[in-house]
Design a protein that fits this description.
Elements lengths: L6 E4 L5 H11 L4 E6 L2 H13 L5 E4 L5 H12 L7 E4 L15 H26 L6 E5 L6 H4 L5 H4 L3 H20 L4 E5 L17 H12 L10 E3 L2 E2 L3
Parallel strand pairs: 1-2, 1-4, 2-3, 4-5, 5-6, 6-7
Antiparallel strand pairs: 7-8
Helix pairs in contact: 1-8, 3-4, 4-7
């Protein structure tokens, strides 16, 4: 059992923002679980980091599966006595469809990962988080979820139509607000990583994964007096 090190788990962590978040947190001397749906890719990512001198532990976790999440909780609980930080990073982008062409089944498939998956994982890990002296939950959101930005013609979010992805992240933001008010002693926040170049956007983003992960790292490493129930990017608070 680990008593001294901060213990963190990052979902969707075999590549992109997730792997960079794992790298940065483990580099602080934390005990970090690299969680990924694909066992082969997750182990490969952990081995790659080990080759860089960064030791992490792989745990298989599919956020869409109750059985997989329960098995992941069991695996983590066998190795540590608590979880200090949960980073819900796993997410998918939907097809680039006009909102008028979006049907319920397409929307449901994306919500299963981006919304229901985050609740499934958070709910399952709450018992371990409650054992922490400073439990932190970071939900990886997006500026596309901001109603203020979407309504501002001067903002790039105004011109980007993504009914499924944007609405899923807006729902996630409200989930953050609900958890923050329902879980006293917890720090639950949403992170806006900007527009990093990752597989999700076919590497068309304008930021690096390291730049995008900065907001996530900041919320994962909050001091005890830090905020809860907020939405933050690299430049500070993001309007809801």
């Amino acid at each position: 059992m680990t008593e001294a090190k901060t213990v963190a788990l990052v979902t969707g962590a075999n590549k992109g923002l997730g792997r960079e978040t794992v790298r940065r947190l483990a580099g602080k001397g934390w005990q970090v679980f690299l969680a990924a749906r694909d066992r082969g890719r997750g182990i490969e990512a952990a081995d790659t980091l080990a080759g860089e001198g960064i030791e992490v532990e792989f745990v298989e976790l599919d956020v869409t599966s109750d059985e997989s999440v329960a098995a992941a909780v069991k695996a983590v609980a066998e190795r540590v006595d608590r979880l200090d930080v949960l980073v819900n990073n796993a997410g998918v982008g939907g097809p680039l469809l006009d909102p008028a062409d979006m049907d319920a089944d397409t929307l449901r498939a994306l919500y299963e990962v981006n919304v229901f998956g985050q609740v499934r994982v958070t709910h399952a890990f709450l018992p371990l988080l409650r054992r922490s002296q400073q439990p932190r939950i970071v939900m990886v959101s997006s500026a596309l979820a901001s109603l203020a930005h979407a309504g501002d013609p001067a903002r790039p979010e105004h011109g980007f139509l993504s009914l499924d992805y944007a609405s899923s992240k807006a729902a996630l933001n409200m989930i953050v607000s609900q958890y923050a008010r329902a879980l006293p002693g917890f720090q639950v926040n949403a992170a806006d990583p900007g527009n990093p170049a990752t597989d999700m956007n076919h590497h068309t983003g304008v930021h690096t994964a390291a730049e995008g992960a900065a907001a996530i790292i900041r919320l994962a490493t909050l001091d005890p007096g830090g905020p809860t129930g907020g939405f933050f990017g690299n430049d500070g608070p993001v309007p809801w």
